[in-house]
Amino acid sequence: INVFHRASQNTFGPLTEIRNTFERIIADSPVPVGIVAGEDPILVEELLDDIVAMGFDFISLYGHFMPASLVERRDITTFFAVNSDYSLEEIRHLSQSFFGDILELSIIAPEHYGKRLSARDLAKYNYIATHAVAPTVVPTQKLVYPSDVKSLYRTGVSAVMVGAICYGRDPEKMRQVIKSFRSEIDRL
Q1: How far apart are CA 58 and CA 36, in angstroms?
Q2: Which of 114, 129, 133, 154 would you call most buried, defined as having the most Cβ atoms within 10 angstroms of its Cβ?
């Protein structure tokens, strides 16, 4: 909510505009449901109680958008996201800290979105994952194929968050791609 999603080129408005959609998703989903709650720590803080009351399982925010009060909340799981502006040293420190339950590795620079996943990317994920205390999640900011799951697993990351770069906007393609990723994960 209250955010522009660079990878999909979508803008999401305030919670009041899409609350009913979220409530249906949460009610119908057999898996945990999370939310990216925006880019303004003050507004995020104002919305936290509503987000928890709606039944979201987790909240994902870049560390620089995460209000300090969220660090101590235990009624929702937090994804502490880092981007390409964070140094590897800062990420290594954060990966060993208490600031989030899960570390989201959104470390690809925007000008490289959609390009093919490289061995260098895997090496960076490996460096962070081997130092991390918290589980690490890699969003597909680059073009990642289901056949890359084994290599990602070998880096030590805990999960892959498959997104728009991999499946576009077509719901049928989304289903097919996610099913293919699931199949590769099940082979591990």
Answers
A1: 9
A2: 129
Q: Is 10 exposed, middle or buried (0-12, 13-18, 19+ CB in 10 A)?
A: exposed
CATH C-level class of 3-186 = alpha beta
pLDDT of residue 7: 61
Give me the residue spans of the domains in the chain: 3-186
Three-class SS state of 84: coil
Give the H/E segment covering residue 48.
helix 41-54
| DSSP label of 39 | S
Element (H, E) at 62: strand 58-62
- Among residues 65, 96, 98, the alpha carbon closest in space to that of 83 is found at 65
DSSP 96-154: TSSS-SEEEE--S-GGGTTSBP-HHHHHHHHHHHHH-SS-EEEE--SB--GGGHHHHHH
* φ, ψ of residue 184 in degrees (nearest 5): -65, -40
User: What global pTM score does this model have?
Assistant: 0.89
Q: Which amino acid is at 28?
A: D
Q: What is the mean pLDDT of residues 23-40?
A: 92
Instruction: Check residue 169 and give its pLDDT.
Output: 78
Cα–Cα distances in angstroms (integers) from residue 126 to residues 62, 82, 131, 136, 180, in the given order: 20, 15, 9, 10, 23
